[in-house]
Amino acid sequence: MKKKILCIDDIKSNLFTLSSVIESFKGKTYDVITSLSASEGLTILLKKRVDLILLDVMMPEINGFEAAKMIKSNKKTKDIPIIFVTANKDDVTIEECYKSGGNDYINKPFSHVELLSRISFHLKLREKEQELKDREEELQHEANFDSLTQVYNRNIFHRLMSRKILDSVNDNKSFIFIMIDIDFFKKINDNYGHLVGDHILISMAKLIKSHIRENDLFARWGGEEFVLSFDVDMQKGIEIANNLRTYIDAYAFDVVGNVTCSFGITEFESSDSVDSIIKRADTALYNAKKSGRNRVC
Question: Last residue of some domain: 84, 114, 140?
Answer without folding.
Answer: 140
